[in-house]
Write a structure and sequence with these properties.
This protein is of the alpha+beta class. About 20% of the residues lie in helices and about 35% in strands. Strands 10-16-15-14-13-12-11 form a seven-stranded antiparallel beta sheet. A three-stranded antiparallel beta sheet has the order 1-9-8. A hairpin with a 2-residue loop joins β15 (about 210-220) and β16 (about 225-235).
């Protein structure tokens, strides 16, 4: 039995821009992906040096455009009969190295016209972006794990003297966690912010921003998530070696989060959870999501 997904028109994350530019440009096939259980074809228009997102079904006979090819004029030629389809450039943006698509298929005005841009470092900085596929994982639950400060301490072993950080919840979907460490010369503060399907954690050591982890969760379906991870840091680590080191350090927490989410029954609802005072920031996110995407809340939770 099929189930219709009702989602307000809004900016939805799609894919890392460098992946599409490198592998899905002129003379190549678009990449097929699912957003909210709907199939799309994504490619790079080399004339405008920008990404394009279109429905994966050709309007002629319904064949998949992802098996066609991109021409020099920014059109996708269907492999079935050669019919060409052009995208609407205004429907895509690249922010922080990630492609976002404004899905207007439901003919509703966009809820979020702006995608926050994190300029994490004013001086020299390095950015590393990669993605992972999480099967049998609800995208909202994956995002919730990045907003749960108690989970951050308990599972990912960010320890403080008393076992818990000093948590402050701010306006504008932001919270900070201040840790007192056993080293008198070291203090750790984590700033956590959410918007749309994205979360950014910024790590400060002795009040100096060291690196940030920007998670973007692509809701490929009710139980399918593509995670895009953007690591921004100062040049304290060496080039590509530093990229791989931080990627590996972040890999175990992602695997742990995946394993936990996979144990939560698909039919469990938010109303079934018994949230305590330690879940205040998580509750703020749920209230925000319910108000922003009321039609999709029942589907995803």
């Amino acid at each position: 039995m099929s189930r219709t997904v009702h989602v307000r028109s809004a900016w939805v994350p799609v894919s890392p821009a460098h992946t599409i530019k490198k592998k899905h440009g002129a003379g190549k096939s678009p990449m097929k992906l699912s957003i909210h259980d709907r199939p799309y074809a994504v490619f790079w228009d080399e004339r405008t040096d920008s990404p394009s997102v279109i429905s994966d079904a050709c309007t002629h006979r319904g064949a998949s455009l992802s098996i066609g090819h991109v021409d020099e004029k920014g059109c996708v030629a269907c492999k079935y009969h050669g019919k060409k389809t052009r995208a609407k450039p205004k429907d895509t943006k690249v922010v922080n190295g990630v492609i976002w698509y404004n899905d207007t298929s439901l003919d509703m005005s966009s809820v979020h016209d702006d995608i926050p841009d994190h300029d994490d470092f004013s001086g020299s900085n390095r950015v590393h972006i990669y993605e992972r596929l999480f099967e049998n994982c609800n995208p909202l639950l994956m995002q919730e794990n990045t907003l749960d400060w108690l989970h951050l301490e308990f599972i990912h072993r960010i320890k403080a003297i008393n076992g818990l950080p000093n948590v402050t919840i701010h306006d504008e979907n932001t919270a900070t966690y201040a840790y007192e460490t056993y080293n008198d010369d070291l203090s750790i503060t984590v700033e956590n912010r959410f918007w749309n399907w994205a979360t950014c954690l910024r790590f400060f050591f002795n009040d100096t921003l060291s690196f940030s982890l920007h998670f973007v969760w692509v809701p490929a379906g009710k139980t399918m998530t593509r995670g895009i991870v953007r690591i921004t840091r100062s040049d304290d680590y060496t080039g590509v070696l530093g990229d791989r080191f931080l990627e590996l350090v972040n890999e175990l927490p992602l695997i742990e989060d995946r394993d936990i989410v996979q144990t939560i029954p698909n039919g469990r609802q938010w109303k079934d959870d018994r949230l305590g005072v330690e879940d205040a920031f998580l509750k703020q996110f749920r209230d925000w999501f319910s108000n922003t995407y009321p039609e999709s809340t029942d589907y995803y939770v």
